[in-house]
Amino acid sequence: xxxxxxxKISPGFRGRIxxxxxxxxxxxxxxxxxxxxxxxxxSITKAAKSMEMSYRNAWELVDSMNTQSSQPLVEAATGGRGxxxxxxxxxxxxxxxxxxxxxxxxxxFLRHEEQKLMRSKxxx
Length: 124
Known about the structure:
By secondary structure, the chain is an alpha+beta fold. The chain has 4 helices and 6 strands, in the order ββββαααββα. The strands form 3 sheets. The chain has a two-stranded antiparallel sheet with strand order 1-2. A two-stranded antiparallel ribbon has the order 3-4. The protein is elongated and about 70 Å long.
């Protein structure tokens, strides 16, 4: 995000963090939000709809995360008459917590670097 100082736009640092696995992206912002929505709704279908995502895409993301993790992050029950559903495992809850900690640290890093840049500009 760029900030205005006395009518001028000053540079700002932005960035995104994700964790790569053996098969590409393991965890990133969108995947974490999907996990949070699965936890909230108890359903991959409902989580996908809340994100305007197809069920197939959501399922593929969940499958990718489960495959790349040492333990599954989501356990899904087959649908049918009694309904299906999905729950986060302890590993899934831990992944969310760790990701947000990494995200917070990364945002703090960006703010720190932006402050260093602004200090160096003011010394000129």
